[in-house]
Backbone:
């Protein structure tokens, strides 16, 4: 399963079409709105809502062949009149959504007896809480608890997210949920990760180059003041585009293949960088926020470390107003 929720982790919903063309048959989303957008784009494969779907929207899910996650008995009873694929979620330690393991035998018996009407049990799954932690001591317990349940032999089982699929072969079963690994942004917790490449580049352009006198302030609050005469470039990107304001006065961008420090506070639509060391810089020059220029690179994980978050939040934060260009 390719997890393409949140516009494919900020990369754009059209990514799902490229994945389907490459042979992927199952896709995970978080909401019905995301599923319907993909259907409108022409996606034909299996769609599974991994989040919570309100009972009022079950009919629409059935109409568009969108599978649902089930985590409580009352929800299943409300859905029984619809022809829907059901993906049974079990809470083995995430404490988020899911049946408790001791409830599963009764639920399986009710499906076998036809108590849940037109619903079809398509798969069962759980979600790892700590698989991407470097010192993971919990996932094996989750695997053992989930696999000990009395699953029908023909039922699809999926435990593994990106990190879990790499670290725990026994968790792969007959489907894995690949998310952040698809986009080359999983931190290096496994040797295979070193072979992956980030698929996203986030670029903008220089709109102005100006000189600064010693002591001159930059941006809101003048949190940066030039320690010497400098040149700064204004870039056409800000926190409304997905450049975290936490990068103010730290971090860098790439221009002419060189790191240029962010100076002053990142604004909503613009940001400023130190280009004193560059030659012949001018408006229109390309600036790479995330990606490669020559031998230099900046990754979403580098941004995440500076902002004390993870690459998921960085990538999902790139706003919809930023144009996406897909290169197959």
Residues:
């Amino acid at each position: 399963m390719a997890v393409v929720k949140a516009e494919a982790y900020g990369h754009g919903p059209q990514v799902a079409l490229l994945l389907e063309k490459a042979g992927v048959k199952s896709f995970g989303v978080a909401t019905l709105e995301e599923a319907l957008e993909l259907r409108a784009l022409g996606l034909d494969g299996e769609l599974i809502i991994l989040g919570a779907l309100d009972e009022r929207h079950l009919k629409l899910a059935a109409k568009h062949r969108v599978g649902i996650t089930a985590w409580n008995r009352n929800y299943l009873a409300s859905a029984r009149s619809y022809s829907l694929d059901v993906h049974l979620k079990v809470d083995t330690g995430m404490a988020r959504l899911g049946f408790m393991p001791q409830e599963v035998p009764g639920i399986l018996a009710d499906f076998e007896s036809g108590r849940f009407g037109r619903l079809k049990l398509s798969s069962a799954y759980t979600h790892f809480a700590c698989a991407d932690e470097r010192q993971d001591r919990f996932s094996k317990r989750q695997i053992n608890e989930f696999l000990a349940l009395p699953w029908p032999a023909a039922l699809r089982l999926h435990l593994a997210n990106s990190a879990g699929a790499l670290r725990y072969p026994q968790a792969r079963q007959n489907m894995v949920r690949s998310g952040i690994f698809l986009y080359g942004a999983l931190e290096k917790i496994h040797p295979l990760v070193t072979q992956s490449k980030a698929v996203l580049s986030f670029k903008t352009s220089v709109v102005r180059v100006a000189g600064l006198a010693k002591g001159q302030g930059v941006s809101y609050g003048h949190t940066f003041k030039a320690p010497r005469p400098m040149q700064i470039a204004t870039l056409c990107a800000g926190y409304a585009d997905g450049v975290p304001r936490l990068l103010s006065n730290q971090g860098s961008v790439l221009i002419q293949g060189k790191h240029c420090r962010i100076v002053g506070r990142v604004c909503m639509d613009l940001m400023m960088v130190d280009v004193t060391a560059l030659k012949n810089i001018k408006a229109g020059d390309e600036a790479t926020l995330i990606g490669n220029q020559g031998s230099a690179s900046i990754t979403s994980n580098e941004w995440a470390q500076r902002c004390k978050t993870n690459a998921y939040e960085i990538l999902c934060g790139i706003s919809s107003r930023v144009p996406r260009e897909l290169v197959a």
Observations:
- The chain has ten helices and 16 strands.
- The longest strand covers residues 202-212.
- The mean pLDDT is 96.
- The radius of gyration is 24 Å.
